[in-house]
Design brief:
Elements: H1 2-7, H2 14-23, H3 29-40, E1 47-49, H4 50-60, H5 66-76, E2 83-85, H6 86-93, H7 99-112, E3 119-121, H8 122-128, H9 135-138, H10 144-153, E4 164-166, H11 167-178, H12 184-194
Pfam family, one: EF-hand_7
Domain EF-hand: 28-63, 64-99, 100-135
Keywords: Calcium, Metal-binding, Repeat
Length: 197
Amino acid sequence: MQNSARAAPNATDPIEKLRLLCLSRGATGILALGRLFRRMDNNGNKKVSKEEFVQGLMETGLEMSTKEAEETFGRFDTDKSGNISLDELIKQIRPPMSESRRDIVKKVFKKFDKTGDGVITIDDIRSVYSVNSHPLYMSGEETAEKVMNRFLANFEVDGTADGRVTLEEFMNFYSGISVSIDNDCYFDLMMRQAYKM
């Protein structure tokens, strides 16, 4: 978080700057951007216009000028429709992960997705995710139930509890976590321990 906060003011690429500003708010910063997107969508069409985007960013307090926000919007609007969808936004803002990290996240997701339909349920995660290695559980600061509930809330976007997690949502969450872990081997170990692999 601190590294991202320090790097953000010096970033020259507007997408990289927005990514760093999100990451400076923690591993769930990308998910918070998704919530922000839904608030920016004033007319509910699941798309955001340039005006909605610029206004939304200004309201967040993220340190971006109007010019930077407009330039960022232009980079997200890959199809030049004058609007951006949440998918266009997340795909570009999500921090890149190495192929080995993407592979372990996909393996974990596949472990849950018994039907192969590309969706896992919250109950599936609850049955496999182990809180035993979580620092707050290990220190006794939080109960297993509290740690589990906070973890599960990461996948419920904008307070909408649909009980379903897509690979994209799963990958978005772990791309935020990945950025804070320098070593691929440690990331792999963390995933294997958390999901009993």
